[in-house]
Amino acid sequence: MIESLAIVLGVALLAAAVVLLKHRLWPMGPDDEPREDVAEYISMMVGVLYALVLGLALVSVWDTHSGAEGHAATEASAAHQIHLLAAGLPSEQSDRMRGTIETYIRHVTDTEWPAMTERTPLGPAGWRLLNEVRATSQIPADATPAQQATGQETLAQLSILDDARRGREADATKQLSPVIWFGLIVGGVLTIAFMFMFGVQRSFTHVVMVMGLSALITFTVLLIYQLNNPFHGLFAIAPTPFTRYF
Question: pTM here?
């Protein structure tokens, strides 16, 4: 958080220094006024197009972040339900199922979560543990009707857990397109640069305008950067849904 604020402040101060340097080295002359309308039109078009790029990027990373949060909560809830449903199975099978689902949760929180933070491949270990959970849910032939119903509900929860896990794995590898990043950086530089085309007579007013715009653009780009990886950074999703239940 402090680093982000320092970057925003640093960019704003750098823009202010450039404005003061411009007013000192190239003061506004009598011929600057006729170019004001052209500069205003070009600056407006660049600002509108850049706002569209910012909105697209922000919506994209926000959807990914919200989806990752939902997948993690759904997966943890399904695992919790499986743990509870184990009580309705035969005693020996119930203990095995509780043990396998707890082992799976420990693997998710202790091994997979740090890997997702670093965007490294999760590997097949999690799926093997999930297959062990599925194997322990098989109902014996002599099961009672109540145990058979519990087994069917367990399979349904396993299907939900399976889908949520696939979504979580996909969310951990999603990244904003390099093309959008190029548009964010180049568009931001152009938008700020066009602010220097205006012949503002008051240097203080010009400094405030450029500093405000620079700080706002930098803050938005940093926000997009933080949200780009759902499991890392200032807005990282923690394994709280899993640790809350287990």
Answer: 0.76
